[in-house]
Amino acid sequence: MAILEVNDMGKKFTNHHFGTTRQAVHHVTFQLEKGQFIGIVGKSGSGKSTILKSIYRTYLPDEGSIYFDSEYFGKLDLTEATERQIIYLRKHEIGYVSQFLNVMPRRTCRELVEQAVLEMGETKAVAKRDAEIALMHFELDPTIWDTFPNTFSGGEKLRLNIAIATVKKPRLLLLDEPTASLDEKSKQRVRDVIEKLKASGTTLVGIFHDIEFMENLCDQIFDMNSKQIMEVASDRNEG
């Protein structure tokens, strides 16, 4: 059974000041099995981020359905889920990574990653261990672990954001241009984590402008222009 089914999903935005309505996306349909990764490609403004935000329920779609096979709730249409259900899913099953960091300024770098692990029901000892492993993997200097992220550079904030989302090993992970401002070495670190998450069963939906980054990583590609799915042969599965 598919873990994620997006069926004929559409989203409009209304500008009440000017009395205008814009169709951001429409007729979006795809489905993913456990451990699969779909990459969404298209020009800027084509609605790629709108799809991810609709799955995460930051936006509420106007059309269609988005079924998620939740470990706790069973098969659930995210367009009809309650706020309480969405809060639970964001804490325990669905992760979201964007190129921007929006965190509480009174939490240190280390505390933010530890809190993500604690939300999964782990002990403080496990949270401390997993947080340190994640911070080291993304090469965040230990001298800044106990400082507030509002002092970080853009690249450091982005790497912290990825660490927070991936340390939970979510059932579904949404990636909104997470490598936008990273150097090649940091991109490879992100790729390593994505490959490990896939191998452990995490399902992923991602937006990447770097086509080379997506090579041999995605199982499917959704083209915003044609609204078509392209199956991708992975070299990792050959031979």
TrEMBL record:
<keyword id="KW-0067">ATP-binding</keyword>
<feature type="domain" description="ABC transporter">
    <location>
        <begin position="4"/>
        <end position="239"/>
    </location>
</feature>
<keyword id="KW-0547">Nucleotide-binding</keyword>
<dbReference type="InterPro" id="IPR003593">
    <property type="entry name" value="AAA+_ATPase"/>
</dbReference>
<dbReference type="GO" id="GO:0005524">
    <property type="term" value="F:ATP binding"/>
</dbReference>
<comment type="similarity">
    <text>Belongs to the ABC transporter superfamily.</text>
</comment>
<dbReference type="Pfam" id="PF00005">
    <property type="entry name" value="ABC_tran"/>
</dbReference>
<dbReference type="GO" id="GO:0016887">
    <property type="term" value="F:ATP hydrolysis activity"/>
</dbReference>
<dbReference type="InterPro" id="IPR027417">
    <property type="entry name" value="P-loop_NTPase"/>
</dbReference>
<protein>
    <submittedName>
        <fullName>ATP-binding cassette domain-containing protein</fullName>
    </submittedName>
</protein>
<dbReference type="InterPro" id="IPR003439">
    <property type="entry name" value="ABC_transporter-like_ATP-bd"/>
</dbReference>
